[in-house]
From TrEMBL, chain B:
<feature type="transmembrane region" description="Helical">
    <location>
        <begin position="257"/>
        <end position="283"/>
    </location>
</feature>
<dbReference type="InterPro" id="IPR000515">
    <property type="entry name" value="MetI-like"/>
</dbReference>
<comment type="similarity">
    <text>Belongs to the binding-protein-dependent transport system permease family.</text>
</comment>
<dbReference type="GO" id="GO:0055085">
    <property type="term" value="P:transmembrane transport"/>
</dbReference>
<feature type="domain" description="ABC transmembrane type-1">
    <location>
        <begin position="97"/>
        <end position="326"/>
    </location>
</feature>
<dbReference type="InterPro" id="IPR045621">
    <property type="entry name" value="BPD_transp_1_N"/>
</dbReference>
<keyword id="KW-1003">Cell membrane</keyword>
<feature type="transmembrane region" description="Helical">
    <location>
        <begin position="303"/>
        <end position="329"/>
    </location>
</feature>
<dbReference type="InterPro" id="IPR035906">
    <property type="entry name" value="MetI-like_sf"/>
</dbReference>
<protein>
    <submittedName>
        <fullName>ABC transporter permease</fullName>
    </submittedName>
</protein>
<keyword id="KW-0813">Transport</keyword>
<keyword id="KW-1133">Transmembrane helix</keyword>
<feature type="transmembrane region" description="Helical">
    <location>
        <begin position="199"/>
        <end position="222"/>
    </location>
</feature>
<feature type="transmembrane region" description="Helical">
    <location>
        <begin position="103"/>
        <end position="125"/>
    </location>
</feature>
<dbReference type="GO" id="GO:0005886">
    <property type="term" value="C:plasma membrane"/>
</dbReference>
<keyword id="KW-0472">Membrane</keyword>
<keyword id="KW-0812">Transmembrane</keyword>
C-alpha cells in the first residue's frame, strides 16, 4: 500500500460516506411528534417505588394512565375517571361516581371495581406505595353500580387532592392480576390518551394515540419521548430538528432559540427556598430576619435567571389556594443591618454560619446561593457555602441534620397548603427543618380541619406567622421553559408536566 | 503446563480482586451520604412509614448481613433487584452491556485507524511539515477531554451540519428484528444494512468523541516505536536489499513496532469503557454508563453494585486477555 495524498483522500471520502449512509430521518412527518424529555423513566408502575414520587416523571405517567380525578393545566380539578366525589354529611364515608363507557388500552371495559381495587392496593403497605399513609385513611371499599364508597378511618381534607397527585392513578385490576407486576412492567396498559407501543429503557418510549380515549383522541397519532438528560444535548435536539419539543433548557438558550422556534415560559408549581434549621445562630430571630431582608430576590431573578421567575414571600405561590398577597418580606438591607447590630453583629463582626446547596440540580442553584452570600456579606453575615448532592440533602433533612441554612426546591402541584407549607414546616414531618413547638402548635389543628374556608385561612395565618418570624426564606417560583418546532402548539401545565395530548398543530 | 499453571494463578488472582471490589463497593455506597429511602420519602411520611420502606428494601439489616445475603444471591446468579426499576439487576446490566461494548469496540477501531494512519504517515513523512502537523494534531486531541470533543461534534455534525444522529442508539420508529442486544453485529449478520447504517449513524459521534484522545495516544506511541525500529539493523538490511520505504514500514518495521501499542490498546480499552459513562450521558446512548449515572443519582444500591462488579469483570478479563495475547505474540515470552 502506498501512503500518498491520493490514498489519504480516498480514506477520508470513505469515512464521510459511512456517515452519510446514516443520515437522520429528518423528513419524518409531524404525525410522529418527537419530544426530547429531560428525565428517564425507570419504571411503569406509577404507584410503587421511587419513580412514583418523582414529580418530573408524572407527565409520562399521565400520558398513559388516568388519575382518579383529572387535573387541568391551571391545577384545578375536573371530572376524570371519577365524575363526582365527596364525603357524606358526617364525613365518615367517601362517595365516588365512576365514569361509564371507558375502556382500557386492551379494549376491556373500565369499571368501578378498578377504582376500588386501585385504592385498596394503594392502601396496602405490602405493595410499597410510598404515599400509603394517605391512602390508608380509607378502608372497606364497596362497589355498587358505578358508585364506589369507602369508610373514612381518619379524616383528611386533602384526600381527593391526592387523587390527582403522586400515586393517584387507576390501574387495571383484571389485567394486573392476570399478568402480575412483571407482566405489567413489560406491557403496561391504562385508560390514558396514549398507549405504550415500544419502550427502550434509558432510550425512548413510543406512544400511540388511544382512539377510544374518553377525553377525545389526541391530535398526534404517534409520540416518541426520547430521554435526553443533558440540557445541552436537548438544545441541540430541537435546534437540529431531531426533536420537535423539549423542556428545561437553560434560560439563555431559551431566549436565543425562541425567535426561531416557538416557546412558552410558564411559572410552575416548583419553588426555590432556603430552609433554616433551628440550631446555632438561627435561634436568634434577628439573624433570621436579617438574612431574609438582605436578599434582593428580584435582582437575582433578573440577573441570574434572565427574568424567568416569580419572587415569593411565603411557600405559597400565586397559583396556590392559600396564597396571600398581603404577606410581604421586602428587600431592606438597612433594616437587616439594624437587626444584626441589635444582636451584636455587623460587617466588621459578621455572624457566621454554613449554607448548603446543590450545584446544577436546579437552574443556577449554586450561582443564586453565591449571590445571596454576597448580599449577606454586605450586611454582616458571613456564610460558608457547602455543595452537596441532592441525595445527601434528602438524607440530612430526614435526619434533621442540615446546616443552619440549606437551599432547596419544593414542588406542590396540587396547590394545597398542606403539601407546601404543611409538610415543609410541620415539625413531626420528616421533611421539615424548622421544628419549633410554637409552629407545631399552630399547624397541628389544621390537618383535620373540615371547614374548608377556615382551613385555608388557617394556613394563610400560619404563612404570615412564618414570614414574621423568618422560619424559612422563600425565594422564587420557577418558570419552566418549553421550546417547540414551528407548527406545534404546547399547552403548558402549571404542574410542570409536559403532556403530549395537550399539544396541537398550529 | 507452565502456561496452564500461570493461567490458573491469574484466575485465582482475578477472583480475589473481584471479591475485594465487591466488598469495597458494597461498604462504600452504604457509608457515603445518600440514603435511597430518604430520597423516596413522600411529604408527611411517619417514622413507621420510613421503617416499613427501609425493611421493604432490606436496608434495616447490618451491612455485614446485607453483604452476606447479597453474596449468597450472587453465587446463585441473583444480583438483586433494582430499587428504581424493580427489575433484576443482572437482566438490566446484561441488557445494556452489548450497547456499551459495541460503542467501545467501534471507538477502539476508530482510534486504531486514526492513530495508525497518523503514525504511519508521520513515520513515512518524518522530518517534514506533515509530521509536525500530525504532532500538533495529536497534542490537541490529547489536551481536549472526550466529553468536550462530544460537545464539539454535536455542534458541528448535529446542529451546524446535521449529518449524524446526536442522541439514542437507533431510530425509535424502526422495527427491530433483533434477538440479542448486539444491534450492530446482529444487523450485519442479518444483512439488514438499513438498520446497520442507522445504528452506525447513531454511534458515530459518541464513538469518535471517545476515539479522538485514544487515537492520539496510539498515534504517538506507534510513531515512536516505528522510529526506533527504523534504526535497527534488519531495517538497514532490508534497505540494502532494495525494498521501498512503504514496504519497509508496513511489512518489516510495523510487525515489531506494534507490540507495545497492542499492550497499550488492551489497557486503554478498559479506560475507554470507563469513559463511556459521560459520553453515553451526553449522547443519551442507552448503555451501561448512562444507566450507571442514573443509578448513582437515585442511590439505586443493588444496581450500582451490579454495574461496578461487571466493570470490574471486564477490566480484569481484558487485562488477562492482553497478557495472554502478549505472551503469545512475543517470542521471548512464548518460549520462556
Amino acid at each position: 500500500m502506498n501512503l500518498n495524498r491520493r490514498s489519504l483522500l480516498q480514506l477520508s471520502a470513505a469515512t464521510a460516506a459511512l456517515g452519510l449512509t446514516g443520515l437522520p430521518l429528518r423528513a419524518q412527518g409531524i404525525e410522529e411528534l418527537v419530544i426530547a424529555y429531560n428525565v428517564n423513566l425507570p419504571s411503569w408502575d406509577p404507584t410503587v417505588g421511587p419513580s412514583a414520587v418523582n414529580p418530573t416523571i408524572q407527565g409520562i405517567y399521565q400520558s398513559v394512565f388516568d388519575q382518579f380525578i383529572l387535573q387541568q393545566p391551571d391545577l384545578k380539578p375536573a371530572p376524570g375517571l371519577l365524575t363526582e366525589w365527596g364525603w357524606n354529611e358526617d364525613r365518615t364515608k367517601v362517595i365516588m361516581k365512576v365514569r361509564e363507557g371507558v375502556t382500557w388500552h386492551d379494549g376491556s371495559p373500565f369499571t368501578a371495581e378498578d377504582v376500588a381495587w386501585s385504592l385498596a392496593r394503594a392502601a396496602d403497605p405490602a405493595t410499597g406505595n410510598p404515599i400509603n399513609f394517605v391512602w390508608s385513611t380509607l378502608a372497606n371499599f364497596a362497589v355498587e353500580g358505578n358508585t364506589v364508597t369507602a369508610d373514612v378511618k381518619q379524616f383528611d381534607p386533602t384526600i381527593f387532592k391526592w387523587m390527582y397527585f403522586l400515586t393517584g392513578y387507576v390501574l387495571p385490576k383484571a389485567y394486573f392480576e392476570k399478568v402480575g407486576p412483571e407482566g405489567f412492567e413489560a406491557a403496561p396498559i391504562g385508560t390514558g390518551p396514549y398507549m405504550v407501543e415500544k419502550f427502550e429503557r434509558n432510550a425512548f418510549v413510543r406512544l400511540k394515540a388511544n382512539p377510544n380515549y374518553w377525553g377525545g383522541k389526541p391530535e398526534f397519532e404517534t409520540v416518541t419521548l426520547k430521554f435526553v438528560t443533558d440540557a445541552a444535548a436537548r438544545v441541540a435536539e430541537v435546534e437540529s430538528g431531531s426533536s420537535h419539543v423539549t423542556l428545561e433548557v437553560p434560560y439563555e438558550e431559551y431566549d436565543r432559540l425562541k425567535a426561531t422556534l416557538s416557546g412558552t415560559a410558564t411559572p410552575v408549581s416548583d419553588i426555590g427556598m432556603i430552609f433554616l434549621n433551628d440550631i446555632d445562630v438561627m435561634l436568634d430571630p434577628n439573624v433570621r430576619k436579617a438574612a431574609a431582608l438582605a436578599i434582593d430576590k428580584q435582582a437575582i431573578i433578573d440577573r441570574l435567571l434572565s427574568g424567568y421567575g416569580v419572587a415569593i414571600d411565603t411557600l405559597e405561590t400565586p397559583d396556590y389556594e392559600a396564597y396571600d398577597p398581603s404577606i410581604k418580606v421586602g428587600y431592606d438591607p438597612e433594616q437587616a443591618k439594624a437587626l444584626l447590630a441589635a444582636s451584636g453583629f455587623g460587617p466588621d463582626n459578621p455572624v457566621k454560619f454554613k449554607i448548603q446547596t446543590t450545584k446544577g440540580f436546579k437552574p443556577k442553584d449554586y450561582e443564586m446561593v453565591q449571590a445571596i452570600v454576597g448580599l449577606w456579606r454586605k450586611v454582616g453575615i458571613e456564610a460558608e457555602i457547602e455543595v452537596y448532592e441532592i441525595a445527601k440533602h434528602y438524607e440530612l433533612r430526614a435526619a434533621d441534620q442540615l446546616a443552619p441554612a440549606a437551599f432547596y426546591n419544593w414542588g406542590n402541584s396540587v396547590a394545597d397548603p398542606t403539601t407546601s407549607t404543611g409538610f415543609a414546616m410541620f415539625g413531626p414531618s420528616p421533611h421539615s427543618v424548622w421544628d419549633s413547638a410554637d409552629l407545631v402548635e399552630k399547624i397541628a389543628p389544621l390537618w383535620g380541619e373540615a371547614d374548608e374556608a377556615k382551613r385555608i385561612q388557617g394556613w394563610k395565618d400560619v404563612s404570615r406567622y412564618i414570614a414574621e418570624n423568618a422560619y424559612v426564606i422563600p425565594l422564587l417560583q420557577y418558570v419552566q421553559p418549553v421550546l417547540a418546532a414551528p407548527g406545534v402548539v404546547v399547552t403548558p401545565h402549571r404542574s410542570g408536566a409536559l403532556l403530549p395530548h395537550l399539544m396541537k398543530r398550529a | 503446563m507452565i502456561v496452564l499453571r500461570a493461567l490458573l494463578s491469574r484466575l485465582v488472582m482475578t477472583a480475589i480482586t473481584l471479591f475485594g471490589v465487591a466488598v469495597i463497593v458494597f461498604v462504600t455506597i452504604r457509608v457515603v451520604p445518600g440514603n435511597p429511602i430518604a430520597m423516596m420519602l413522600p411529604p408527611g411520611a411517619t417514622p413507621e412509614d420510613v421503617a416499613n420502606l427501609t425493611a421493604l428494601y432490606g436496608l434495616d439489616k447490618t451491612i455485614a448481613e446485607q453483604f452476606l445475603i447479597w453474596g449468597q444471591g450472587v453465587l446463585a446468579g441473583d444480583f438483586g433487584t433494582s430499587i428504581t426499576t424493580r427489575q433484576p439487576v443482572l437482566d438490566l446490566v446484561l441488557g445494556r452491556l452489548p450497547a456499551t461494548l459495541e460503542l467501545s469496540i467501534m471507538a477502539l477501531v476508530m482510534a486504531m485507524l486514526i492513530g495508525g494512519v497518523a503514525a504511519l504517515t508521520g513515520t513515512r513523512l518524518r522530518g517534514t511539515r506533515t509530521e509536525g502537523g500530525i504532532d500538533i494534531a495529536n497534542g490537541m486531541a490529547l489536551s481536549v477531554p472526550d466529553f468536550l470533543w462530544g460537545l464539539i461534534l454535536i455542534l458541528l455534525f448535529g446542529v451546524l451540519a446535521p449529518i449524524f444522529h446526536i442522541s439514542g442508539r437507533i431510530t425509535p420508529s424502526l422495527d427491530l428484528p433483533f434477538v440479542t442486544n448486539f444491534y450492530l453485529f446482529e444487523s450485519l449478520l442479518r444483512l439488514r444494512f438499513d438498520l446497520w447504517a442507522d445504528i452506525v449513524s447513531h454511534m458515530f459521534l459518541p464513538a469518535l468523541a471517545l476515539a479522538i484522545p485514544l487515537s492520539a495516544i496510539i498515534g504517538q506511541l506507534l510513531k515512536q516505536s516505528l522510529k526506533e525500529t527504523m534504526h535497527l539493523d534488519y531495517i538497514t538490511l532490508a534497505r540494502t536489499k532494495g525494498y521501498g520505504e512503504n514496504h519497509i514500514i508496513l511489512r518489516e518495521a510495523l510487525r515489531n513496532a506494534i507490540l507495545p501499542t497492542l499492550t497499550l490498546v488492551g489497557v486503554q480499552f478498559t479506560f475507554l469503557i470507563g469513559g463511556t459513562v459521560i459520553i453515553e450521558r451526553l449522547f443519551s446512548y442507552e448503555g451501561l454508563g448512562n444507566m450507571a449515572i442514573d443509578a448513582v443519582i437515585n442511590r439505586d444500591l443493588p444496581l450500582i453494585q451490579g454495574i461496578v462488579i461487571l466493570f470490574a469483570v471486564i477490566f480484569t478479563g481484558v487485562n488477562l486477555i492482553v497478557d495472554l495475547t502478549y505472551a503469545l505474540l512475543n517470542p521471548r515470552l512464548r518460549h520462556a
